[in-house]
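fyi for ur records
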Amino acid sequence: MTIQHKQLAENRWSELSFFAQMANIGSETERAIKWRKKENAEYAEKAFERALELFDLTAADKKNQKRLKEILRAREMFADYFAGGNNYHSTGKQWQKYFFAFNFAARLNA
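which gave:
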């Protein structure tokens, strides 16, 4: 997997609040889900990889250490939903609802 967010990986990502980071992950998960519904596997896969990369950047951010369990569990569950066997039985609608809360919180913090 190649780095898609090179500028963000160079410490810019850590400047964002936790809510903004999660909202950005939500944008990529939304793209992955929408491209999958449109049956564009290439674009869906790219959005999925970008989402995983943002999950990893968020987990690596030192200010998020107390939230690490949630971040990594969400990453695991999204990877399972999108590329695994969907053992957690999640849906695209559930992912939209989960990330909507972060989007809302990020806008309140802005």
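The chain is about 75% helix and 0% strand. thats all i got for now
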